[in-house]
Each structure stands twice: as C-alpha cells, then as structure tokens.
Amino acid sequence: MIIHHPDISSKDGKLTVSARIEFKTPLPGMPEKLWFEFPEEWSDLVTDRADSFLSTMLLVAMRHGENIIEVRGEVSPRFLIGINEYQMAFCMWPIWRFKPIRIECESLIPTSTENGRDIVMSAFSGGVDSFFTLKSYLPGNELPKSVQISHLLFVHGFDIKLEYPKSFPLLRDAYSAMCERLGIKLISCRTNCQQFGTRQNWGLFHGAALIGDVQNPGGNPDVPTCIDCHGVHDVPDPTTAEFRLSSTELCAKCHTDPARMDKYDISTNVLSTYLADFHGTTVTLFQKQAPDQQTNKPVCYDCHGIHDIRAVDDPQKGLHVKQNLLVTCQQCHPGATPDFPDSWLSHYEPSTEKNPLVYFVDLFYRFFIPGVLIPMGVYVVVDAGRRLINRLRKGGQHG
User: Fold this and answer.
1) Strand partners, 15
2) Radius of gyration over every alpha carbon of the chain, rounded to an integer in angstroms
3) pTM for this one?
4) What mean pLDDT is reported for the chain?
C-alpha cells in the first residue's frame, strides 16, 4: 500500500486534508482518497502530516494482506514506535485475522507537540472508554500538564455514519457544551474512513442492534451487552487460550435459549451440533485436559466474527452465502475447493426440511445397521450355543 503525500484544500469555510491511497492489489469499491474535513477555525492545528492517514489505514492494509505500507509524507518518530506496538497487539489476537506489516516512511519529523506545543488531544466517541479517559486526564487531576487533556476530537464518519447527518450535530452540540463547562475545547471533523473498512453493514452487529439507530429506534434487548460476554468485576483476559476454549459456552448461553432464538427462527442446536463435529470435539478435549494450550480448531467467533458478527444471509460476510463460507473455511483449509463447503450442514440437524438426503440416508442406516447386526448377533449366539451343546454331548458320550 502507498499513502501518498496529504494535501490541504479550503472550501466553504472547511479545510480538507486528503491523501490518495494505492493498494498493491486493487480492491473494488474502495475510495481513491482518504480525507478528513475540519472547520476552518481550527486551521492552526490542521497540517499535511501523514500520521492520521497511517493510523487509519494500518488495520485495513493488514487485513487485506498488504506486505508493506509506504508513507510518502511526514510521520512522527514517537508515533511510528507506538503504531508498531499497536499492530503487534492486533497480530496476537486473533492471529489469523491480521498479519504484521512493514512500515516505511519518507521522512520522520517530530510534531509541534513533541517540540513543546501546549496541546493534549484525545479522540472522543461518547462511549464509556472515552468518558473514562476524559475523567482520568482532566485538568486539575494533579497530573503533569503534559498529559492533561485540553482538546477532544469528535469524528463524524467513524462511530456515527456519514449517512446520518442529523444525529451528529445534536451530539456535537451537547458534547461541546460539556467541554465548555470542563474548560476544554471540542474539535469536530468528518471523514470517509469507514468506507475503507470491511465494507460491512454496521447495523447488523450485536452492539448496533442493542442501541438501535434511525431505522431501528429503541434497540433490541435480546442481543448481548459487553458484560454478558466479558463479565463485570471479574473480566477475564480474552487473549488467553482458556477464554478462547470456553467462548463456545458464552455464545451458547443465548443461542441455546428457545425463548430468544424462536423469535428469529434460529436453531438452538448450535452447541450440540458443534460439539458433535470434529472441530467441537477437539476443542472440548483441549478445554478439559489442557485449558491453557492453544488449538488450531475453530471456535464460534473464528467463523462468525467477534464484534462484527453478521447475519447469516448478509451478502458480504453471511455464512449462508457459499462463497463467503468458502473464504471462511480457507482461513484454516487454504486448499479448500469450491465444493468444500457443501459438506457443512450448518447448525441444523438433518430433517425432511433441512438436508433431506442426509436425513433419509441416516434414517436408512438407523434401520439397516441394527437390521444387520441384530440377526448377526442372534446367529453368533445360536451358533455358539449349538457348538457348546455339541461339545457337552460329545463329552457325555466319552464318559
């Protein structure tokens, strides 16, 4: 991937910093440029540095198998060290989703902040983590001034999609008033960074369904919250082998509940069919005998995603779409052919409606096998009995 040198343009009271993004392997549907748009009043803070472009495109490049990112612009040396540590963390969990990538920068030049400029900015989404960071580093917390937050950056096009232009101003004005009371400043900007993601419908995820959106106000109480999977005061480390091996039980808490699943016509046999499969059997053995050892057998989130779980009929990632299922299988079975997914019965037990051929073959063998083994067993017992009787008779004749 090449991140070309950013350019700054001004129009209608807005400053736009943009850079052309060039993939090694062209990806259809990707924008040609990544851009950030700021109100002109913040012109003294807007530069043509490439730090923000590198941080935005790193995971995109890693996910799409790029081997190197060539940055044709200025990058902070301190930022480069941090971003490399950042990518190593993502490579550790889960290891097959992201691959490490080399970063080459045209020039390493410290930012004005590193040279002593008195500004400390924190990204702000309005989420719990954002508020915790803000609370921890507010001015007056008896911390060094170099870490006290003076500005918040609130981005339209990241958590709040550009397609929802009415929601963002309401939140921006509310957070701006909050910042004014706290003695800090809120900077708002717009970006198209979400268009470089996995091109997914963000409204299909558990979190989006819980909160609701313009199309689905009120949210869905049936989907899990953070604490349902991660706990409250005893939050386990999700990067451990033990958490991964036991993660199937987390999913099963909801997905084996008929009261929830019947509403959506989802099979409650997900756990039993998984455990009956070679994958699930192996994971269970590891969980019971070596819970601290990693296994290369998939658990639920390896196929369905973690925080980006899709509906099974989603055209981009849904596993009821054969091509999507093939791509998923190829993560562990790189030599899988287009016919490979045909052996997957989903999480449904064979029936006259679901996989009828398998159902009738199974039904045939349910009668055929006992029909063969029982007569054979009777034959063996009768034959053994006759042989025993014959031997006893011969023994009596000798006596």
Assistant:
1) 10, 38
2) 30
3) 0.54
4) 83
